[in-house]
Design goal:
single chain; 218 residues; alpha/beta; 9-stranded mixed beta sheet; 8 helices
């Protein structure tokens, strides 16, 4: 029915990665396939974590020779996906219960191209601080928001592969590849909505934030 795309690279935490995978596989509506892109060479701990996933027939691992960045790695996986509905997942976050089931219903019943939702940040375990990042819900409201800032929580999105490919997919623009993609899809006429519920628990501990700051992000 749908494909989940995830990327992992050398600085990711293998324990968080396995937790993220389990939250995908344990959904009330699990994916038909999970494509994991190994973005360049990784350390032995990540290699060991990847080896444990061979028992899951829905998981396929795609190894890249060199690091391409999140957008480039995901684009390769999306191109290889066998399903027309794609869900994005980060390697250190946790899917909320029922995430995919809610998104599939919204996507199909409302004739949409992209569906996202709220995220809830946590430090050590989900719901330990309950910081919720809200986004506009209706298509018209999020189009207005897109003029000034990203209208979607990227880690929550589910979309139609056909709508994604119609605009060329992610471009080689590190760190803002999602905003660039959404803007082009909106211009192309794609229909967006956000579910006004938490769909993903996003890890925001100090060790995670340390990998997400610096001059390149600025």
């Amino acid at each position: 029915m749908f494909t989940v795309v995830m990327s992992i690279y050398n600085r990711d935490d293998p324990k968080y990665f396995i937790d993220a995978i389990q939250s995908v596989l344990n959904q009330s509506l699990p994916p038909s396939e999970v494509l994991i892109v190994v973005d360049g060479q990784v350390n032995t701990m990540i290699q060991a974590a990847l080896a444990t996933l061979s028992v899951y027939p829905v998981i396929r691992i795609i190894q890249l020779e060199s690091n391409m960045g999140l957008g480039g790695a995901r684009h390769i996986a999306i191109q290889q996906a066998t399903k027309d509905i794609i869900a994005v997942m980060d390697s250190d976050d946790i899917c909320a219960d029922g995430r995919f089931q809610r998104q599939i219903l919204m996507l199909k019943n409302n004739n949409l191209d992209v569906v996202g939702g709220y995220i809830e940040e946590f430090d050590l375990t989900p719901r330990d601080n309950q910081r919720i990042r809200l986004v506009a819900v209706s298509h018209d409201a999020l189009v207005k928001r897109a003029r000034w800032r990203n209208p979607m929580n990227h880690v929550t999105i589910m979309f139609r592969k056909s709508a994604y490919m119609a605009v060329g997919g992610y471009k080689a623009i590190r760190y803002v590849e999602d905003y660039d993609l959404f803007y082009r899809m909106i211009i192309s006429g794609a229909r967006f909505e956000n579910i006004p519920e938490n769909l993903v628990y996003v890890r925001c501990g100090k060790e995670v934030l340390s990998r997400r700051v610096g001059l390149s992000y600025f």
